[in-house]
Amino acid sequence: GNCKKSPNSASPCASVMKLADWKDVGTVYFQDKFPLLLKSTIKCEYGGVDVTITDSAQRNVIEKIDTTGAPVPSVVKTEPYKCTHCEEEITSEFLRKTIGAKKLSSKQAEIIDLFLPYLNKYRKNFGLDTCLRKAHFLSQIGVESANFTTFSEYENYSNPPGIFSSSLIQINSTIVSSLKDNLTSIFKIIDAKGEVIIKTNDELKTLLLKDKPSIVDKELYAAYKGEKDSKDKKKYNDKLIKEILKTDKTVDYKIYLKSHSHFGIPLMSRAYAPYVGDKRGLGNGDELTRDGWKFKGRGLKQLTGRGNYLNFTNYRNKNTFTDDTSGQIDFTAEKDGSQLKGNYLKISDDAMYATQSALYFWNDGTKKNKKFAKEHADNDDIELVIKCVNEYDGKDGKNNRRANFKRARKEGVFDINRHYKLMLENGDDKQKEEAKNYLEKQKNNGDEEATKILEEEEKKNPTKKEEVKSKKK
């Protein structure tokens, strides 16, 4: 304009003004649309108003910031999506549906009421903090606890584990010593006239070691019905196992195996005793130490073996269980002066320790492919979870575990597809990718619900490939 203070007032003031040097105002960290980049000032030499000239540019995304001497905007952290259902407590209704029971029996309700408060109290700190982990864990302990009916392994096996077989073996001192209090219930001696010869346990022990009959060991320890009658299939008879002859080759007496019930302590002691080629690594002593019975399956997981009881002891002493004020306990310790009494009984007698021992094994028990059961649950690998929890379970037991998980992952229980659907809708990029991969896997396995979720997501967010196709059209 025309500056009245300039002697050259008829001409633009700028004609007599001198442009100062351009100055760099510093590194730009503003979020303005056109931040200031350079500045220069034209000073009026006649006391008029100074003119400031600036140079600006459009903002670009900042790739690297040198924070020296410059204000840095605070970075807003985005938390990954958290499924609200993962936070939900486990209910008895979830347990009922997992095992496929129409209604819980009074025994089941009693057992569940004992351990469920502890399970919910501990679950967040001990690996039961996602829908998938809860579904896998409960599918396993449902089988381990005989559908939530016991904290102690049943002993009435028809086909007991371990060294037992269906083949004939010669009776030996370990067998007769283990069964020494039960021999009169197992064997009977008949003379040449068909009369019973009464014998005590000690007398039978001596006779059996002298005559060495061949027997099928499981028929001595487990419940035995007898031998089927050749004429009447509904009838069972005592089984002849050896005929003892006199020097003149006539019959002196016969040894028979009688029908009888199972003998729990000897049976479990033999079942979990070590043998040649045993790969179980239970850490037990031989049959006569009774370690097999002391450290039989106890607790929700049916923790088995002296070695595992010791490992649980160490784990519990290093990890804090909420509100447990009972202090350190050695669960392998025996009670002085009392046979078959020790701290191992606490795991089957007390729901708190029954629950803690199961959580120990879930987090830190057996490893398969360098991972514990909890980690295989994260990968949704039911087969490796089974191997970690009970590799030696029979065919029926393993099938029951698979069936439990199939029910547990469904809608109305832990609804695993819902978990991944919500993650797909609300998660960050990494979570969305994880959810999509899981649902694709289920789709390939014939899961109609997973297929539907993916189809709905595709409609909302078409892939780039589809977008390109639509543009060409």
From TrEMBL:
Stated name of the protein: DUF4280 domain-containing protein
Lineage: Bacteria, Pseudomonadati, Bacteroidota, Flavobacteriia, Flavobacteriales
Family annotation (InterPro entries): DUF4280, Lysozyme-like_dom_sf
Gene3D superfamilies assigned: 1.10.530.10
Region of interest (Disordered), residue spans: 425-473
One matching Pfam family: DUF4280
Biased segments, Basic and acidic residues type: 427-473
